[in-house]
Amino acid sequence: MKILIPIKRVNDYNVKVRPNQANTDVDLNNVKMAINPFCEIAVEEAIKLKEAGKADEVVVVTIGDDKHQEQLRTALALGADRAILVKTDESLEPLTVAKVLVKVYQKENPNLVIMGKVGIDGDHNQTGQMFGALTGLPQATFASELEVNGNAIEVTREIDGGLETLSTELPAVVTTDLRLNEPRYASLPNIMKAKRKPLEEINIGDLGIDTTSKISTLKVESPPERQEGVKVETVDALIDKLRNEAKVI
Amino acid sequence: MKTLVVAEHNNSELSAATLSVVEAAKKLGKDIDILVAGNSASTVVDQAKSVEGVSQVLSFNDTRFANEIAEDLAECIVSVADDYCYFLASSSTTGKNNLPRAAALMDLQQVSEVIEIIDDKTFKKPIYAGSCIATVKSDQEKNVLTIRTTAFDKSALGAGSAEVVEKSVPDTASRKAQFVKNELTVSDRPELTSADIVISGGRGMQNAENFALLEGIATKLNAAVGASRAAVDSGFAPNDYQVGQTGKSVAPNLYIAVGISGAIQHLAGMKDSKTIVAINKDEEAPIFKVADYGLVADLFEALPDLESKL
Ligand SMILES: Cc1cc2nc3c(=O)[nH]c(=O)nc-3n(C[C@H](O)[C@H](O)[C@H](O)COP(=O)(O)OP(=O)(O)OC[C@H]3O[C@@H](n4cnc5c(N)ncnc54)[C@H](O)[C@@H]3O)c2cc1C
Ligand SMILES: Nc1ncnc2c1ncn2[C@@H]1O[C@H](COP(=O)(O)O)[C@@H](O)[C@H]1O
Hints:
heterodimer; A: alpha/beta; nine-stranded mixed beta sheet; two-stranded antiparallel sheet; 6 helices; 15 strands; 27% helix; B: alpha/beta; seven-stranded parallel beta sheet; binds flavin-adenine dinucleotide; binds adenosine monophosphate
């Protein structure tokens, strides 16, 4: 079985990202970048399947500029076999990303595609579902458990009411939730080894996809700041404030 | 051209989230229809037609809709798409699952988690876990939006009298995904995203048993109980309790955070609450920066004291 993992390069999740001076975009100058946490979980799941003898090959793909090689190398160091960079200097919308991924899918013919449920940058939560629509593949989003049985999978999904389990034949697309697994760290020897693993580059222009944005960003602002409130000394004082000042109980 | 709101329901009750989506839809100034794909969900259809401001209820009735599968719902939406220029659902796990699939089938780019509708093509949405708010403008004739329901009021139930139109169900017999089972949390408490008061526990609660300390207070205040990711990951609380970037967004009148440090991903889901209380033994905890009232205390002393005095 071959698994394809689309990964996204985003800000390190510990960094609080701010608008730029002109309020036209976010300011990512000097911000530490990383693999989107949900994509790291996708990579980990694929590697675990490989270690369990259920997958033979794990291919990671990302769409972006040359700097994205860093994240691909990290994924290779974590255990992916091969990487693909679809090169573009533009930042693409989920629908366009999904269309590019369809091309890669058609070329690679994987049995399973695992994506993150959401990129922590744009908070879109769309690409996996759109990819499912465009390929006609069944989708199981927000996975907290994934079981592969031959040519079928069973996926436990985190939903607002609790948990839901779906089953489907392969090929299929799964998107990861945080509780699917805990990603490992890359070891130094593996980081060295990753440098020699294959990293293929494709020019986005060769794929014949219209990459024009359908949505433009007019403004990026900080949300209204909350005023820091007061400290109360005792439970009695707290109850008094809630009853008589905030009037919420 | 009209606005289509995709109803969320469990085949017996229309979700409160849908009422907020209808309220958001009103800001777009078009006639509003509600799509209900259900399995003998006549009570849901009845509720949907009574939502104030709704013109038509499109009812897709099939045993296949006993549990909602994204493939089915996307096909239902696409089958009526010609009449609509807006497609809206809540940014619940259901809306997030279905709507992007439908959007891609229509070759439309979706705007997720809309918190403000500025005009027919301009919307505000949080990005980077709510660290920034983006104003975006669409160049598309048709638009697909998921609505963050805490940012909108609810349209009244019972005030409207929409026409019900039975629609023929698209053939999705070939779809592969099959429902196996679900494990839904049952609770007598108000639902987390619509409760007036929420009390949440974090890693500081130490174990699942200690969540009883929150339950006691929740009962007295008729509050919902929530949790941080750390508490859910540690098995103190079920996944559907999680508040934050990856969990639920809540904006109650009163949010009480207990033993929660206040990571940005947690704040993303609760910082729009009207009044915030933090109980934490570390006076430097970032949660105090957003709290209206902070109590620096050991929760194992403060919670029993609070419960007894309410
Ligand atoms: C991609 C991503 C998404 C995430 N999404 C979410 C999300 O949706 N929701 C979420 O909550 N987190 C989320 N997180 C995790 C988040 O970064 C934090 O790790 C998490 O919120 C911490 O939970 P906590 O505050 O309960 O635990 P901690 O940060 O460990 O804080 C525990 C607090 O309890 C206090 N405490 C301990 N004992 C006591 C006591 N006896 N009395 C009083 N106080 C006490 C401590 O002082 C401390 O402040 C996400 C992380 C990532 C990377
Ligand atoms: N530029 C990209 N390159 C590769 N995969 C991506 C890219 N953008 C998004 N994805 C995938 O889509 C998932 C969801 O992203 P989003 O829809 O942007 O929230 C991510 O976790 C990735 O798996």
